[in-house]
Specification:
The chain is an alpha/beta fold. Helix content is 34%, strand content 16%. The protein contains 13 helices and 15 strands. It has helices at residues 20-28, 47-53, 61-67, 101-110, 131-148, 178-189, 201-210, 222-228, 306-327, 329-335, 337-340, 353-359, 366-372; strands spanning 3-5, 33-36, 56-58, 70-72, 90-93, 113-116, 170-174, 193-198, 215-219, 234-237, 263-266, 287-290, 293-296, 343-346, 349-350. The longest helix has 22 residues, at 306-327. The chain is globular, with a radius of gyration of 22 Å. The structure holds nicotinamide-adenine-dinucleotide (NAD). Nicotinamide-adenine-dinucleotide (NAD) binds at residues 133-134, 137, 174-180, 197-200, 203, 220, 238-241, 246-247, 249, 267-271, 299-302. Residues 4-137 form the Alanine dehydrogenase/pyridine nucleotide transhydrogenase N-terminal domain. NAD(+) binds at residues 134, 198, 203, 220, 239-240, 267-270, 298-301.
Length: 375
């Protein structure tokens, strides 16, 4: 199968969907790889590194879309890319269709095969191609939070780890999933005193077993949250209710219980945020202040660390991409249920219920479409 890797053109997106190591993996199996020049620059991979790994470098995005049977990307295509997408071309990338009716109609019109990273799903319902970005954002939340706790950045002026004779800072983590676990580990590693809250008792039991001694677990409810925020220096929001907007766990009236200069990092902002006063920000202007509380609400945190994010993402996507190339998308999706769940739109037909429900558009079962799809 011919593989194409365009340069990401969405504003401020520096990741790339395939590393030189990935090119070698495809080449070894006889799949030619075409990469757009400078596609890897934002992540620190030179054109020479791709060429040495066996890729053919192309000058323009048009050439990449024109030659490839499978396009591997990071972000959803933007309007200027729509006309480049060909009928029956396989697109393997993040789409987040439910948040864009325009994109959904465009992909239906292009009759492409849209396999979305975010809906590839394992038996245990985990989302293996979202996990790496949650890991990055969770770890980064402490790094960012620690920075904004500094006085010149608007924070309380607290060093999370403390020093001899001075108590460490307090970190409260709401949500003990991927983001929360990684955040708690990082904060604990810095020497902070950490409390992690979740509504799942089995999850709290697990965390209690594996976390170091400076991490406590606590049931998440309004009473406990009101108590904890009074002494926390840094609060991380990492809750998720699949398919729903995140709940507002810290309401505006609760801000006055907190000490001025407390920092809140709302990682869940991409699902609407879990603090009432959260609104999405960018890396250009990551924070704002409400009632003397510093809010950090960047919706694409991993974008600031593209080198790490690219490697983390491609480690997870490459085995699936290789399977698609080896077997063809149809056989791969029949054989591998995880990949099948990633199919959102096939040759103009929506096959993912959440997308059809979001816009009241017609839907067909993926199995029916797989049997009748043209290859
Ligand atoms: N901003 C970014 O750049 C970025 C990057 C990656 C992920 N995210 C987002 O971070 C959020 C968390 O992702 P994740 O992978 O850790 O999800 P996850 O499903 O692994 O964990 C979510 C946890 O929240 C818990 N939870 C649900 N309701 C709760 C409540 N009321 N109180 C406390 N805990 C509660 C769940 O039990 C679960 O353990 C998601 O919204 C995700 O989209 C944002």
């Amino acid at each position: 199968m011919i593989i194409g890797v365009p340069k990401e053109i969405k504003n401020n997106e520096n990741r790339v969907a395939l590393t030189p190591a990935g090119v070698t993996a495809f080449s070894r199996k006889g799949h030619p790889v075409y990469v757009q020049k400078t596609a890897g620059h934002g992540s620190g991979f030179s054109d020479e590194a791709y060429a040495e790994a066996g890729a053919v470098m192309l000058n323009t995005i048009e050439e990449v879309y024109a030659i490839a049977e499978m396009i591997i990307k990071v972000k959803e295509p933007i309007a200027s890319e729509y006309p480049l997408i060909r009928e029956n071309q396989l697109l393997f990338t993040y789409f987040h269709f439910a948040s864009s009716e325009e994109l959904t109609h465009a992909m239906i019109a292009q009759k492409a095969i849209c396999l979305a990273y975010e809906t590839v799903e394992k038996d245990d319902r985990s989302l293996p191609l979202l996990v790496p970005m949650s890991e990055v954002a969770g770890r980064m939340s402490i790094q960012e939070g620690a920075k904004y706790l500094e006085k010149p950045m608007g924070g309380r002026g607290v060093l999370l780890g403390g020093v001899a004779g001075v108590k460490p800072g307090e970190v409260l983590v709401l949500g003990g999933g991927i983001v929360g676990t990684q955040a708690a580990k990082m904060a604990a590693g810095l020497g902070a005193y950490v409390t992690i809250m979740d509504i799942s008792l089995p999850r709290l039991r697990y965390l209690d077993d594996v976390m170091p001694a400076n991490v406590d677990t606590l049931m998440s409810n309004e009473y406990n949250i009101r108590q904890q925020i009074q002494t926390a220096d840094l609060i991380i929001g990492g809750v998720l209710i699949p398919g729903a907007k995140a709940p507002s766990l810290i309401t505006r009236d609760m801000l006055k219980l907190m000490r001025p200069g407390t920092v809140m990092v709302d990682v869940a902002i991409d699902q609407g945020g879990c603090f009432e006063t959260s609104k999405a920000t960018t890396h250009q202007e990551p924070t704002y202040v409400v009632d003397e509380i510093v809010h950090y609400c960047v919706a694409n945190m991993p974008g600031a660390v593209p080198y790490t994010s690219t490697l983390a993402l491609t480690n997870a996507t490459l085995p699936y991409a290789l399977q698609l190339a080896d077997l063809g998308w149809q056989a791969a999706c029949i054989k591998n249920e995880e990949l099948r769940k990633g199919l959102n739109i096939v040759q103009g037909t929506i096959v993912y219920k959440g997308v059809s429900e979001a816009f009241g558009l017609p839907f067909q079962e993926v199995t029916t479409v797989l049997e009748t799809a043209e290859v």
